[in-house]
Design goal:
alpha+beta; 2 helices; 5 strands; 21% helix; globular
């Protein structure tokens, strides 16, 4: 049986990716416009949310979060 899997489901079930919530409007605007934002998280791939809404996937490198896949 074939099933369509959303990006959010894929990264939840198959890659054990952590979650970051962006709740500050100024940081959210920068992130959505392709700018990296300062964040205190370990390097790696993260699911990005705002106000319980899935935005996509981001990458943290050297305390900077940059978008990778945006829905």
């Amino acid at each position: 049986e074939e099933k369509i899997v959303t990006i959010e489901e894929y990264y939840t079930k198959y890659n054990n990716v952590k979650t970051i919530n962006i709740n500050e409007d100024d940081k959210l605007k920068l992130f959505l416009n392709g700018n990296s934002i300062k964040i205190s998280e370990n390097d790696g791939m993260y699911k990005i949310y705002t106000k319980d809404k899935f935005l996509g996937i981001g990458i943290v490198e050297k305390n900077r979060l940059k978008r990778d896949i945006i829905i």
